[in-house]
Amino acid sequence: MDRDVKEVLKACEAMIKEGSSTFYKAFGFLQSPRREAVFVIYAFCRLIDDATDEPERSCYTPEELAERFDQLETAEGHFIWPALRWLFTSFPVSKAPFWKQMEGQRLDSHLTHYESMEQLERYCYLVAGTVGEMLLPVLHGHPDRYVAESGIWLGKAMQIVNIVRDVGEDRDRGRRYIPLELLAKHNYTLQDFQSGVMNSSWTSLIEELCLLAGDWFEKGLCNLEAYPRQSAFCVELAARMYGAILEDAARHHYDVFTRRAHVPAWRKMTLLQQLLKKHGMPLPKEREESTAVS
């Protein structure tokens, strides 16, 4: 790996380290070059997300990202382009899920209030199930259809966690991912939502979403034994840490209007120790500092 490639991959690592401590800690246990490939995928997805959610700090508009991705072989001006060229050269990754990811993120510019669970599941697939499709050729040498489907379910489950965790922030941005269909089912009104009312209706509503996420997590982890051991460990660690966000939300009575649910350090350490033992994984000494849970 030449110096220029190492530099752009380091820049991608810096993005995931800053943007998602859960993903960084979980996938930091992978050996090179799989580890760097995950970082590149995360970095590009982060750019897509920022282009929609935080355009004032984004270096590209969604249209500019799509244009450059379409002309990836010659795209310049940002470290992500040589990093992506390295990714597609090094692993049998398809461009299709990247295009779907961009399609899903563009929904946020016009579809801000969801009506049905069917709409929500499609959104979860486009913005998160596709990440499972991106990662699969990196994490698994020869995945079959069942392993591929599991990766999609896992991504969708993680997106439900994001939606629950970010209810308050999204509401303040003028977005409501929780479908009107679900609000009506639990007799929770739009006025209640705007006011951040926490009552038994809100609790039952969020608990239903958490049960859905749990079901999708179960489907996402059901073919874990088919992965290489190291990949299986990293995938399960990421999933369990993400699932623990919902545990924290429950401990605070699903107050996701005024606080952002997170996983305490002690819980992260417990999960790490449990899964290291389960998968027979020693803590790689050369990665101890960067993967230490804090």
From TrEMBL:
Gene3D superfamilies: Farnesyl Diphosphate Synthase. CDD domains: Trans_IPPS_HH. Pathway: Carotenoid biosynthesis. One of its GO terms (biological process) is carotenoid biosynthetic process. Keywords: Carotenoid biosynthesis, Transferase. It holds the Pfam family SQS_PSY. GO terms for molecular function: geranylgeranyl diphosphate synthase activity; squalene synthase [NAD(P)H] activity. PROSITE patterns: SQUALEN_PHYTOEN_SYN_1, SQUALEN_PHYTOEN_SYN_2. InterPro entries: Isoprenoid_synthase_dom_sf, Squ/phyt_synthse, Squalene/phytoene_synthase_CS, Trans_IPPS_bact-type, Trans_IPPS_HH. PANTHER family: BIFUNCTIONAL LYCOPENE CYCLASE/PHYTOENE SYNTHASE (PTHR31480). This is Dehydrosqualene synthase. It comes from Paenibacillus abyssi. The lineage of its organism: Bacteria, Bacillati, Bacillota, Bacilli, Bacillales. The gene is crtM.
